[in-house]
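Figure 3 (text version): structure tokens given as input.
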């Protein structure tokens, strides 16, 4: 999804949230339900966690010839892909989002425990610098 598409999607969601708050009749129960599930995903898997995972993946690229880093990179990559699919279709978000968060946290934890990086480093790179 391009930056333009993401910005448009974000604007659509903001408009929908306003419409829900104001009780517009054209907002269907399905639209309300989807928005509620998307909010659950965003609360369960914060963007700071996604930024930390992305940073860790960038750091691991030069070490993908080592099995541990390859498997860790693959785990984060699959989790990130599942997150994107969940945002596109948030069905079962209440079950999937907590599991994805657990995968992200445990995988990043294994990198910290292995001495590859620190929680402080991940926290520093999890902040929004846009």
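Below: residues designed for each position.
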């Amino acid at each position: 999804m391009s930056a333009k598409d993401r910005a448009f999607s974000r604007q659509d969601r903001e408009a929908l949230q306003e419409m829900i708050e104001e009780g517009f009749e054209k907002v269907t129960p399905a639209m309300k339900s989807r928005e509620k599930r998307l909010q659950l995903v965003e609360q369960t898997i914060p963007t700071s966690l996604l930024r930390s995972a992305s940073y860790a993946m960038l750091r691991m690229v030069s070490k993908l010839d080592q099995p541990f880093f390859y498997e860790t990179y693959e785990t984060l990559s699959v989790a990130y892909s599942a997150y994107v699919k969940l945002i596109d279709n948030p069905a079962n978000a209440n079950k999937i989002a907590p599991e994805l968060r657990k995968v992200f946290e445990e995988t990043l934890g294994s990198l910290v425990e292995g001495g590859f990086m620190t929680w402080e480093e991940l926290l520093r790179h999890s902040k929004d610098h846009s």
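Confidence is low (pLDDT under 50) at residues 1-8.
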